[in-house]
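Notes to self after the call with IL:
- keep both proteins in one doc
- input above output, always
- annotate only the second one for now

Protein 1:
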Amino acid sequence: MKKIGKLGRRHFLLGAGGFTLALPVLPSLLTETARAQVRQNKRFVAIASTHGGAAAADMFPPDAAAPQTEPLFPGHVAHHGPLPYSTSGGVASITRVLRGSEGVLTPALASKLNVVRGLGIMQYMGHHHGGHLGSIGETGVPTIDQVLAWSDRFYPDLSGVLERSIQIDSDRNGNGLAWGFTDPATRSGAIVGLPAEQSSIGLFDRLFGDVGATAPSEPRRPVVDRVLDHYRAMTSGRFGDAQRLSAADRRRLEEHMQRISELQRRLESRAAVSCGQLTRPGNSAGFTRADDVRLQVRPVAEAQNAQWFALFNDVLATAIMCNVTSVATIYPRAILVDGVNQSDWHESVAHAGDSATLGQQASRVFEHVFLDLVSKLDVEEMDGRTFLDNSLVQYTQESGFLTHFSLEMPLVTAGSAGGHFRTGRFIDYRYRESTLLPARHWSGLKAEFREGLSWNQYLANVLMAMGLRPQDFGDTTPGPGYGDMTVEARHAAGYHQGIVDAGGDPLPMLVA
């Protein structure tokens, strides 16, 4: 048997990239402390696509699939029921959009999913990136992934954590889903989009490239230590510079040093990583990229793009199982529809949600990105629970079934966040007897939005599921949910004060 090195707490899977660790976690070999740490560890992954492009009738189960009722407010009744599941010709389906191979989307995996309707952003958003995770307009507050990444309640022990969060974006020129403070440790500075990785090999090398490497016999003092010494000397006045620093320069220097300190922490954490033997993934350089599609105006190759994300999912699943990160965002954008030129993608896919297109982008992202990742995480961690069971993986669309409008954000989740959420449910928070807005038309589509609950309430529930308390969210007024809960004037008739006041409450029918 080939030696795999020190036995860690995680185990790995065989994926499209061809790298693997074969052994599962062996709970009998763990101390009680280690067992407790494993049980308490949670993970959060957000996946999102752009535009709309999935008609409500294709994205959601029919109303009849949620026959049970739940009163939320006086005059507001919500509905729920078991998630529908069917198979035909080797394809398993929840809805016309939410489907995949019967061998992947099994009844057992489907029982760990939720489809939620009736959660909305109470302001007009148009196109956006940060709104998926609470940074309305990419200003004011960071996205919730960054709240988790910099929370000592979520990461009580950073030993072995090489990246607080991982950002993956298929477009190198775009701002991804993650937005945070320029100085996240002190929650200060501007809210900025965070850089994302576009190479699965690059991400693997960044995380695991020198893990387990033999240390030199006489290690050199890290450069970051020397930079820290210089910084302390400067700010203490030894060089006579302290009095000359302007407030803006001092803030800029503090932010830079925070990044240096984080780099130092990651370097020191590498010694605590114990992953066994890993094999570098296959070359992804030849696969179609979103920016290649835009520049060359050629048909998108769905199979190549699916493999591009499968390689990323292999690396990300490995990182989660190895406990080197517990937070990630993935932004597939507009690259997964076969045979559609970029020149007509906008109208053929982004703005088309009728039954002919079947929400092509949403269906491909669900199958090739979301479902691929959650199936790779659904392997036992310990005590009968899988890594997926201890995680929350969510898939959202920028607009839902009518592009440019975020009043009803489709939500698909997998995992229970360690038992915090119920799963296997179709939940409809809309009050079906009300109409929030008159019918809207866009590219031949007609939609009526009905009163539901706020997206802010869902985001607050995610943070609480991950172990944070409302006081840990920071000041996100107005409203008790996460992020700006201002109700746009023209939506006031639908989003009444009771919905705003409930922004920090546990979500009924979803929280266990």
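Protein 2 (the one to annotate):
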Amino acid sequence: MSDLLGKVTGDQDIFKKLGSKIPGLSEFIERQNYRAADKLLRETIADHFEALYKRISALQTDFISAGEIMYVDDLEKGALKLRTFIDKIRRATYGYSGMFDATKVNEEELARVYQYDSALLDLEGEVGRAIDNVEASMGSDGLPAAIRNLTSKAQDCLNAFNQRDEIMQQGEQSQ
């Protein structure tokens, strides 16, 4: 978290640095920094998963070329789940509320959401290994199980996102 937050705070202009010395305004600027870091992290997550999605699309083409059309629909289930996850991450609620908003998200909640977003990157490796397994299983009896595993990992991504969404909603309800 400190890496992205440090990048965001390091890029502040002189007015933000001066404003951070004003009581009350410094908390607003800190929340703004968390918001920017959260957005940057979510864009990174979405970009990483976009690359995985493209690998699945390439696999579908390979299946068609190899005459294994019967697996394309099964693989599409996993691809659609991953696409939904990517779209949700890109459009997710920012871990932040404005200075004058009725609902405020405090810094502890922002840090928790940011840490949760960081954990979403761990799922990238799991999905990547599931795709590797599908590639390795092409032409074998293990292919249907490999595709089911990939679909399951893609569903895990959606479930993880939904838990993140619950954290955001709990933060809004506690205010």
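Annotation: The domain at 44-173 is CATH 1.20.120 (Four Helix Bundle (Hemerythrin (Met), subunit A)). Residues 95-103 have pLDDT under 50 and may be disordered.
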